[in-house]
Design a protein that fits this description.
Layout: E1 2-11, E2 14-24, E3 29-33, H1 40-47, E4 55-60, E5 63-64, H2 72-76, E6 79-82, H3 94-124, H4 142-159, H5 175-187, E7 193-197, H6 205-220, E8 224-228, H7 232-238, E9 241-246, E10 249-254, H8 256-261, H9 266-275
Parallel strand pairs: 3-8, 3-9, 6-7, 7-8
Antiparallel strand pairs: 1-2, 1-4, 4-5, 9-10
Length: 277
């Protein structure tokens, strides 16, 4: 699904990523670990071009989205993102947060279709009957788009047991509830892959479990996920690939049994000796 080739990211004279290459297949649960400042989050943000790569290629479903000529917004529709600090809109209710992206994108597509149909109608006036183009079908009105998005949002909230929170504002939720809402907000776009940037690091310890339970459920359902985390137990249990990044480079990549049981890289051995206690 994603093929990262010699990815580099530089801020001024400082190189954060130094030629990272990795393949992510459909259904992979890839966990990325490493010390603070090693480039993990920068790598994740480069994957959906929230940070523009300095050099290299990111082939997502056959398209190099690192190419500046590519409309990245088209491809971001298929790549969800869950942030460390939730990034919910505090001036919108829970259900409005979940509905926002799908309604915006589908209404944008509707406006684009209507403009194209107007152009087709105008050009058809000057064509013979046999040469006239057919109009592009309009599958839903703006009202129907909003209605469908609301139904889907309520269904997603029901799946995580928060349907009674649909009309409240994020400020009234616990940290764990906010992060679960942030996850289903990504799911509302029906993405092919979800990127998680330390999704539990801002949570109190008792709230971590409810977020990890939801992520375990997504893993069982076959969702492709790339997760930057410090939760080693979760990585052992759920991941099928674990990467160790340090100083902007992948120093080791292996299945969790081999990665944690028989690490080869000396820096990884040192890192695991400090975090696995």
């Amino acid at each position: 699904m994603i093929d990262v080739i010699n990815l580099e990211k530089q801020f001024g004279d400082t190189k954060i990523l130094k030629g990272v290459s990795v393949k992510i297949e459909k259904g992979d649960i890839m966990v990325i670990i490493g010390p603070s400042g090693s480039g993990k989050s920068t790598f994740l943000r480069c994957l959906n071009c929230m940070e523009d790569p300095t050099r290299g290629h990111i082939i997502f479903k056959g398209v190099d989205i690192a190419d500046m000529s590519v409309d990245i917004n088209v491809h971001r529709r298929h790549m969800g993102m869950v942030f460390q600090h939730f990034n919910l809109f505090n001036n919108k209710t829970v259900i409005q947060n979940i509905m926002l992206a799908p309604v915006y994108v589908q209404c944008q597509d509707l406006r684009r279709t209507k403009r194209k149909n107007l152009w087709i109608r105008c050009t058809n006036l000057f064509k013979k009957q046999a040469d006239k183009r057919e109009l592009i079908p309009v599958t839903a009105t703006k009202a129907q788009i909003k209605e469908n998005a609301q139904e889907n949002a309520l269904s997603l909230l029901k799946q995580i047991g928060l349907q009674d929170k649909a009309d409240v504002y994020p400020s009234t939720l616990s940290g764990g509830q906010k992060q679960r809402v942030a996850i289903v907000r990504s799911l509302a776009m029906n993405p092919d892959v979800i990127l998680f940037d330390e999704p539990t690091s801002a949570l109190d310890p008792e709230m971590v479990g409810e977020v990890l339970d939801l992520m375990r459920k997504l893993a069982k359902e076959g969702m492709t996920m790339i997760i930057v985390t410090h939760e080693m137990g979760f990585a052992k249990e759920v991941a099928n690939k674990v990467l160790f990044i340090d100083d902007g480079q992948i120093l080791e990549s292996a299945p969790p049994e081999e990665f944690f049981g028989h690490p080869k890289n000396p820096r990884l051995k040192e890192f695991l000796s400090k975090v696995l206690v």
